[in-house]
Amino acid sequence: MKSPPSPSSRPDGRPDARPDGRRNRAGRPDRRGGKVAPDPTRDIAFDIVEGVIVHRRMLDTSLEHSAAARTAEPRDRAAAHRLAATVLRHMGTANEVLSPFLKREPPEPVRVVLLIGVAQLLFLDTPPHAAVATSVALARRRGLVPFAGLVNAVLRRVAAGGVEALEGLDQPRLDVPAWLWQSWGRLVRPIAGALGHEPPLDLTIRPGCDAPPGGEVMPNGSVRFAAGTVKVAELPGFAEGAFWVQDMAATLPARLLNVTAGERVADLCAAPGGKTAQLACAGAEVFAIEREGRRLERLRANLARLGLADVKVIHADAATWRPEAPLDAILLDAPCSATGTIRRHPDAMWIKRPRDIATMTEGQDRLLAAARDMLRLGGRLVYAVCSLQPEEGEQRARAAQAMGLVPDPFTPEELAFLPQARTPEGWLRTHPGMLADRGGMDGFFAARFRRG
Ligand SMILES: C[S@@+](CC[C@H](N)C(=O)[O-])C[C@H]1O[C@@H](n2cnc3c(N)ncnc32)[C@H](O)[C@@H]1O
């Protein structure tokens, strides 16, 4: 077997910082007596993908566990994140492409290396020689020297076949775990079809502030930038708090609570605070409840950047916290399986299991009952989840009614800018396949009630 070409290129196809590609700071020799180029991006991507598929850790947790990530430059961490997310988004397809070339199941770390190679060959703009060579080098750095030849041979064959290997494959079906596929019913094709794409970046513009230039204004007023085209913190107005990052669908639950200035409102599950900010900008007196300490700090930092110092941030469990006096309105953006944000967090597809949904619904019902008890008579509640699972959405809305909450359906006028998201019951149901030609949106369910 021929030795692989010299490792040199980045997974995104951009030029190397060091074009010779043969020296590293550690000066580690490779098998040929040369030096193995440092490649923090692929080392971190390996840690992430292995963390998700072998240890069933979330992507962010896997990143925290990665020793390579600790010393890496931010741009290498970002590139690794993108590479790992691409692997996770297309994992079923990549495994299908690999299967004819694997006579027996390779050890899991070898499969991880192969998946990283295939993702670069078929879904990123990495030059084929670089995708192969860097994968072989990755295998060696990971102590998989006996498998370096296999990695080289398999990826060369995938490279030779090119993207034609994807023809005829039902990629959406391959890339979604079977239990999720079954759970999405008649919406499954539009949802799954949208999951293969990197989602755009949406900004909510603070009332009275200017949007950064270059974005597309969406029907709800969000300003959208294509994936990877801007760095949020570098946009004009960021430091001044002129906007915050929030998917267009995520803006809808707080908007549909229709709060007015001076109303006493609670956001029961508040961090990182996009919806809290919406309520505060509407002039309400906002109590932002958050149970997790680290997330509470993030909420505080976000509100501070936005200059929303009047929000009362409270570290508490919303199931037991009670306001001093009954509230006019409550937003319950309940913790959920978050399957509506799989576009942004493709790791979730491979970590969640059906039984997690049942665990979530118990907590959702507890919070619904608590919210009901905090409202004044006639007070409004919007229940929302960023989930595509009917158990957490439609079925919880029915459970809320069984708890005595009175339905207050969203009207066609309120959702005139997105009529397809209004259900016959007057609930909100968005999914990634909506406005797909403009970048789609996260999956949300929301329903409004009054205390009778
Ligand atoms: C779906 S996220 C909320 C997102 C947030 N509303 C936003 O728009 O930025 C759910 C949040 O609720 C918090 N949480 C979960 N259970 C909670 C509880 N019982 N009491 C208060 N916060 C809770 C989680 O830590 C998490 O930050």
Automatic annotation (TrEMBL):
Which parts of the chain span the membrane according to its record?
none
Catalytic site: C386
> Which Pfam families does the record cross-reference, listed alphabetically?
Methyltr_RsmB-F, NusB
Alphabetical UniProt keywords:
Methyltransferase, RNA-binding, S-adenosyl-L-methionine, Transferase
Q: Which residues form the SAM-dependent MTase RsmB/NOP-type domain?
A: 176-452
Citing just one GO molecular function, the answer is: RNA methyltransferase activity
> What is the designated name of this protein?
rRNA cytosine-C5-methylase
Compositional bias ranges of the Basic and acidic residues kind:
11-33
Q: Does the keyword S-adenosyl-L-methionine apply?
A: yes
Q: Where is this region: Disordered?
A: 1-40
Q: Does the keyword Transmembrane apply?
A: no
Name the domain of life: Bacteria
Per the record, the GO terms for biological process are: regulation of DNA-templated transcription; RNA methylation
Where on this chain does S-adenosyl-L-methionine bind? C269, A270, A271, P272, G273, G274, K275, E290, D317, D333
